[in-house]
Amino acid sequence: MSALLAILKRDLGVLLPGGRRGGSLLPLLFFLAVAMLYPFAVGPDPQMLARTGGGVIWVAALLASILPLDRLLAADVERGFFDQWSLRGISEEAVVSIRLIAHWLSFGPPLMLAAIPAAALLGIDGPTLRTVELGLLAGTPGLAAIGIIISALTVGLRGGAALSGLMLIPLAVPLLVFGAGSLSTGGEGGIALTGAISLLLVAIAPFAGGAAIRAAREG
Amino acid sequence: MEACRLKATDIACRRGERLLFRGLSLDLAPGAALQIAGPNGTGKSSLIRILAGLLRPFAGDVERSGAIGLLDERPALDGDLSLARALAFWNAIDGGEGAALYRLGLDGLLDVPVRYLSTGQRKRAALARLIGQRAPVWLLDEPLNGLDREATGTCAELVADHCATGGIAVIASHQHFDLPGLAELALADFTA
User: Do A87 and B69 touch (CB under 8 A)?
Assistant: First the structure.
């Protein structure tokens, strides 16, 4: 147990904004940049911005979740950490679960915070912002889980980062459909479905990720 | 030291389409040290990984009792952390403390980030991690690579101490390893 805590502490130290990895604020800034650019591109019509703004926030959040995937697991596989953990009886599944928590904490809550200034930039009203925030709360764990699975699958590949982005987008479509869809239907049902998809993905991720890392070891 | 044993029966190793070796058996009791010798590409590292349980043998099986400590070309230390903090991470997991730092000549390097260490210093840091793990079975893959003459001697002494306290050591190296009672296994004899 203390071993898992030590790993969680290390992961948080690496991944959280201001952490050792550097550039962990990038997804956040990227997200805000999209929200800022959108009104420039489509014009300052307040009604149009308010109608489409929620969807833009969702697309920006999805794209921002791709940025931290680069070397999320590959670095530790290459440097022998996973081998050493395995020899100590710490399963890949446990390490991937911990990495999933740290990865979500590093971009989920920060994106939810950044959605507030983004909503102001896009002229989104209070109730819509509430739906967006709840949707992000339900959806970002799912995005994190897809990200972890993909980075585990691309562990042994050169140029895995670009491929990760391409692989994440189709897998994230259901989350986007229900998450952003909850905006037009005004709520609960879409968010509940987003949460259900997220839970399923979070439950699968440690096992899929663990198996992928073990398979890469045999290769 | 906890009881340990390492026994491999009739193992074969295949990498890609090539059968590297076959029919290899070994049985190591506490205190035993074995050097696996052979030219490059004969499968020394693969054998170490099979013994560690990180690679499945193509045939045969391996029985191991006692925790396994592995030292290979990857030190598994965070490059951007100071040496002290990088080792502290493993100490927190293994429940050990910074042993043998002075003996390995690392005591003056504790606040230097791992990425600034030389190849030999990194190897010594990995040895410190291995000692802190206090595993009875040591699997060392090219432990002498990058080490200077003095550190080579220290490494041999550390392995000798480890075996004297009832540990097992398997050393894969093409270099001479100065250790009394070291058995040698020439991997070339098992080439398929």
Answer: yes
**pLDDT range class, residue A217, cuts 50, 70, 90:** confident
For residue A164, the model assigns a pLDDT of: 84
Total-model pTM: 0.91
Chain A residue closest to B88 (CA)? A6
Residues B55, A10: C-beta atoms closer than 8 Å: no
Structural domains present in chain B: 29-43+66-184 (3.40.50.300)
Residue ranges of domains in chain A? 2-218
Residues of A in contact with B95 (CB under 8 A): 2
pLDDT, one tens digit per residue, over A57-70 is: 999 999 888 888 87
C-alpha A88 chain-centroid distance: 29
pLDDT less than 50: residues of chain B:
none
| A87-A90-A96 Cα angle (round to 5) | 125
What distance in Å separates the CA atoms of residue A103 and residue A145, rounded to the nearest whole number? 9
A18 and A106 in contact (C-beta within 8 Å)? no
CA distance A151 to B84: 30
pLDDT of A21 higher than 80:
no
Q: What is the pLDDT of residue B119?
A: 92
The interaxial angle of helices A92-122 and A188-218, nearest 10 deg, is: 140
Note whether A84 contacts B80, CB cutoff 8 Å. Answer: no
The pLDDT value given to residue A1: 74
Residues of A in contact with B65 (CB under 8 A): none
In chain A, which residues have their Cβ closer than 8 Å to the Cβ of B67? 87-88
| Least Cα separation, residue A149 to chain B (angstroms) | 21
> Residue B56: closest CA among chain A residues belongs to which residue?
A218
Q: Is A177 helix (H, G, I), strand (E, B) or coil?
A: helix
Mutate to test the interface with B, among A77, A87, A213 (most CBs of B within 10 A): A87
Tens of pLDDT, residue by residue over A90-134, are 999 999 999 999 999 988 999 999 999 999 988 888 888 999 999
